[in-house]
Every structure is written in structure tokens, then in C-alpha cells.
Design goal:
Elements lengths: L1 E11 L12 E8 L9 E2 L4 E2 L4 H15 L3 E5 L8 H9 L6 H9 L4 E2 L2 H5 L2 H9 L5 E2 L3 E3 L4 E2 L4 E6 L2 E9 L3 H4 L8 E3 L2 H15 L4 E7 L5 E3 L3 E3 L2 H7 L5 E3 L6 E7 L5 E7 L5 E9 L13 H11 L15 E7 L1
Parallel strand pairs: 1-19, 2-5, 6-7, 11-13, 13-16, 16-18
Antiparallel strand pairs: 1-20, 2-19, 3-4, 8-9, 8-12, 10-11, 14-15, 17-18
């Protein structure tokens, strides 16, 4: 019996929706990251069976969907196109057939993906073709088309589940030029993550008025300057310095993480990272309950109201931004 691990975060009582009409809504957020072509539980390089893989993750996801159904949100955080020969074959040898990666992800019913630096490494002909065959958006708020000045990919995805509006904002580390030659990403640039997050958070809160905001960042948490000018691994900085995120899903650094941090507005943010190769996945349970909006002020969003009520310590009748995080690392048996 093979096994797959997961990092397990429990979130209760986040920003809540009027549209839910008093209904408690339970969501499950599942993240994969840095799969690196590990689609099957077999290493085609060493020619041995090995841990993880999209195939084993699918077994877990299907079991959880029996309970959560459409309220299970499946996200990938990049670096999925490079690593195993299976990925290489569909990247460069068979460029006519649908890409195996998009076929598997479509079958698994991913809700959104994100670009990673090793996806960019395959070259525009490869990653643009892969993206075109995905049934879900591959995000990239800070991947800019230099000819238009606009994002080359969708910056965020809006999902609605049981009257709850969820927004997923995707970004990639901007240090791509430090590693990869320009011919691989010609016509694009990679903007700073924190600056990009500030821009899009303002748009998201004004236009979408979400109940839950998830950052899907292909970047780790140990920030430093790459080549003296690129803010590498800025996920934690964004979570702390840009108010509005409830969950930040990390990747890129292949390091497991599960913790909460406080941002500059005094709100808690869950930080979680499933490492690499599909051996571990991020598994977050979110329970949302309704909150009264009778005291909503002019130009105040629901998120502003909840945080204000928390600061003002209003009566218990107002359910406010309570965030509980239980840090667990467990094993799930996969047939």
C-alpha cells in the first residue's frame, strides 16, 4: 500500500458572505506545486516506482470530493512541465497531440493553475501551447506582455461556491531573467510581486468584493535580492505587507510549510507549501459563517467591516475574523 502525505491547515470563520443567506459553507482547498513532470508513480529516469505523483493525488481528491463535491477547489502552483521524460516528450517530441499534462489536469478538474520558472524554461512555444489546451486558467498577474503592458495571462480567477465568492490571485517569482535566456520568454517581463499584489488587491476588493482571497505564488518565503534587483522568494513579504489575503499558497522552494502570520493590518494569514514532486499536498479546510452587514459604512468592504468589528471588539452577535490554525502532518493511504 503506497502513501501520500499532506500538510493540513484548519481555517475557521474567515470573511463571510451575505449571499450565503445564513448558511454555513465548508470548503476544501487542495494545492499541488512543483510536481516536475511526476504524473505517474514511476520514475522514468531511474526506472523505479516512487512516491507521489498526480495519479496518487487524484485518488485522494476523488475521495474528498465524495464529501465536498464542487466545494473542493483544486489548484496547481507551477513547475509542472519539467522534470520527467514524460513531460519532455510532450514538450518537444510529440507537439501535435494534446499535452499529457493538460490532459491529466483537465481529467482531475483543476480549478486554476499558476506559472513556475521551470514552466517558462520550456519556452513560449511549449508553455503557450500547454496553456491553450488547459480547461482552466493558468494565472500570472505579474507576467506582462511588453507590447501591450497588460498581463500575458489571467491575473486572477473568481470562483463561487454556495454563495461564497473566492478569488485566486496568481504570481511567479520575478527573477526569471536571472536564470533563463530571453529567447525563452521573449516579449514578456516579470514584475515585482509585492507591487503587483498591491495593484490587483485594490482591483479585486473594489470590483469583486470577495469573501475569501487566496494568493497562489510560485515563490518561497526566504526573501533576498537576486542579481541585485529581483525580489526572489517574496511570498511571505506579500502576505505580511499587502492586506487582504486570507491564505497564501507557496511553491518554488521545495520546502514544506504550514503556519500563520500577521499582516500589517493585524489580520492572520495562513501560509502553506506542499514542497515538490506530488509527494505531499496542501490540504486546507475552510468554514465560513454569515456575518451581519447592518453596520457596513459607506465605501467599506465586507473585509473592512469584519476587521473593524474585530478591532472594536463588538458584541458576540457579530462573527468576526477568527482564525484558528491546527498544524498537522499526517499520512493518507492511497490505493
Amino acid at each position: 500500500m503506497k502513501r501520500i502525505g499532506f500538510i493540513y491547515g484548519l481555517l475557521f470563520c474567515l470573511v463571510l458572505s451575505v449571499a450565503a443567506q445564513g448558511k454555513v459553507v465548508k470548503l476544501k482547498i487542495v494545492e499541488t506545486s512543483d510536481v516536475h513532470g511526476n504524473y505517474y508513480p514511476y520514475n522514468f529516469i531511474t526506472r523505479h516506482e516512487w512516491k507521489g505523483s498526480l495519479a496518487r493525488i487524484y485518488s485522494f481528491v476523488q475521495k474528498e470530493r465524495e464529501q465536498y463535491k464542487e466545494n473542493l477547489i483544486l489548484l496547481d502552483n507551477g513547475d509542472i512541465l519539467q522534470g520527467q521524460p514524460t513531460a519532455y516528450y510532450y514538450n518537444y517530441i510529440d507537439t501535435v497531440s494534446p499535452h499529457l499534462c493538460s490532459e491529466m489536469m483537465n481529467f482531475m478538474k483543476y480549478d486554476a493553475g499558476n506559472m513556475g520558472n521551470h514552466d517558462v524554461e520550456t519556452g513560449r512555444a511549449v508553455f503557450d501551447r500547454w496553456i491553450a489546451t488547459c480547461d482552466f486558467p493558468v494565472l500570472g498577474a505579474n507576467i506582462i506582455d511588453t507590447s501591450t503592458g497588460k498581463p500575458h495571462l489571467a491575473p486572477y480567477k473568481v470562483l463561487e461556491r454556495d454563495g461564497v465568492k473566492i478569488v485566486v490571485l496568481g504570481m511567479i517569482t520575478p527573477a526569471i531573467p536571472a536564470w533563463l535566456s530571453e529567447n525563452l520568454w521573449k516579449g514578456l517581463r516579470f514584475d515585482d510581486m509585492e507591487e503587483t499584489a498591491r495593484k490587483w488587491m485594490k482591483i479585486i476588493r473594489e470590483k469583486e468584493n470577495p469573501d475569501l482571497v487566496i494568493g497562489l505564488f510560485h515563490a518561497g518565503q526566504e526573501a533576498f535580492k537576486m542579481s541585485g534587483k529581483y525580489n526572489e522568494n517574496a511570498s511571505l513579504n506579500v502576505a505580511k505587507n499587502v492586506p487582504g489575503f486570507d491564505i497564501v499558497l507557496m511553491g518554488h522552494d521545495h520546502a514544506r510549510e504550514c503556519k500563520k502570520v500577521m499582516n500589517v493590518a493585524g489580520d492572520s494569514v495562513l501560509i502553506i507549501d506542499p514542497a515538490s514532486n506530488g509527494i505531499v499536498l496542501s490540504n486546507v479546510d475552510v468554514t465560513l459563517k454569515p456575518v451581519s452587514y447592518t453596520h457596513l459604512r459607506a465605501h467599506e468592504t465586507r473585509h473592512d467591516l469584519v476587521c473593524r468589528l474585530l478591532l472594536e471588539k463588538k458584541k458576540k452577535s457579530y462573527l468576526v475574523c477568527l482564525l484558528l490554525l491546527e498544524k498537522k502532518k499526517t499520512k493518507k493511504h492511497i490505493p
